[in-house]
Amino acid sequence: MSAAQRYLVLITAFLALVFDGVELGLMPVASLSVSKSLLGSAFTPELGGEWFARFTAALMLGAAIGGIALGNLGDRIGRTRAMGVCILFYSIFAALGAYVKSQEQMLALRFLVGLGVGGLWPNGIALVSECWSGASRPLVSGAMMAGLNAGILLLSQLARHWSITPESWRWIFQFAGAPALLGVFVLVALPESPKWLASRGTKKSVMPLRELFQPQLIRFTLVGIIVSSIPMIGAWSASKWMIPWADKIAGSADVGYKAATQGWWAFGAVLGSFAGAQLASRLGRRLSYALISLVTVTVTVAMFQLTAPLQPAFHGIVFAQGFVATLFFGWLALYLPELFPTRVRATGSGLAYNSGRFATAFGVLGAGFLFSALGGSYPRVGTICALIYALGFVAIWWAPDTGGKPLED
Fold first, then answer.
1. What is the pLDDT of residues 320-349, one digit of tens each?
2. Using CA atoms, how far apart are residues 96 and 81, in angstroms rounded to an integer?
3. What's the DSSP call for residue 40?
4. Which domains are present in the chain?
């Protein structure tokens, strides 16, 4: 590829992940307003929390299925075609959310949005990893994951200036449909990965998804699933409760406080997701993951137990939690493509990254029931669910250390 083509791939994949982040950050900041609007007089704070968990679970379940099915599509028809399909999925179905009349309709659309959200990551990361190899890859991998959280930051800033309320929330879903134009561009004009084009001539005895569970790859597949699942479950079962918590405590006095909370978290997440790949490159894959696990469980518990919305220290520790919890995802962007050869890289990365979302979907639903059982206590449910991060310190020592090795063709 020419230098211009490589930069076009990098910029386009970055933008696709920015809008992917917009979709991920949409319901945490809009969920209570949507529920108050659609449920009317039937709304209660506990019911609002339960619907937040359902919307999140639907998105995670869709992302899990999409990450595996559409990741597999990237190995079959090409990275760029699969990326274009994913962008159209998440943008078109997000835009339709502006016209729903019931919670159930929104729930179905969040599942369909999740298909595109989950499918984009493995194809985008595989494309960029294959077009930018060598010493620059940790920087590029970090930049890609920073793009995901830059989308959440962008959304939070929009919500600070144009409030999301029970009377005015449909506009944010219309905005989330704008990336459809980017999806068309990707399908028409984005160059394909040379590594993938070269791999089309190789003989394949089994389908990519089946090959991942053959003896030569099954260990790497299972390791990828485990190290991806822990931060994914922690992020959505524990961390995201901070935003509806902020909405409940401060919403009546300051409509923009929940958006400011998400903004501080996303600002830390942009930095953390970029730094995670650099940390993995400098300290090694295993040691860096173990340290990230310990620090994240400590900071997350502190966020729910030592502060609260409207307290002076709250946004500072929210920023810190966003930074440390997303170090995982920059780490994953570097590590997962290293586990798999080119012929199954998108499928393997997608399966590993998104299998955690199956567990997350059920984990979030469980957190929703726990939330109700604990009397609607955000600090208690957040603290209990944060303990999942501690498992990472144990699990990582069974993972192969891929540092210093080139991507396998």
1. 999 999 999 889 888 888 888 878 887 888
2. 23
3. G
4. 3-193+207-398 (1.20.1250.20)
